[in-house]
Amino acid sequence: MNFDHGEQHARLIAKHWGVSVEDLDLASWGLEKIEGNDGEVYGYLVRFAADTDPELLENLRVDSNDLTREVNA
Asked: Which letter, b or e, does each residue of 26-54 get, where b requires 16 or more Cβ atoms within 10 Å of its Cβ?
């Protein structure tokens, strides 16, 4: 998993989730497509690195056991 992400992605995700873009910038994360059998993209899964600070995950409303959160397409 590549945890590189763009500033624009961080701003859009933060706005969608209602969280701080600064908190997202402090975390290591990457995007994974959620695709249907037909190849259509239905959304994205934001996957956080296993060593992400638990308090930061809580601020981002991410389950520390799963390390992922969905964002709509």
From this structure: ebebbbeeeeeeeeeeeebebbbeeebee
For residue 17, pLDDT beyond 90: yes
Residue 1: pLDDT band (50, 70, 90) is very low
The boundaries of the domain holding residue 28 are 7-72
Which H/E stretch holds residue 12?
helix 7-17
Contacts of 63 (CB under 8 A, 6+ apart): 57, 69
Is 26 within a domain? yes
Number of domains in the chain: 1
pLDDT at res. 4: 52
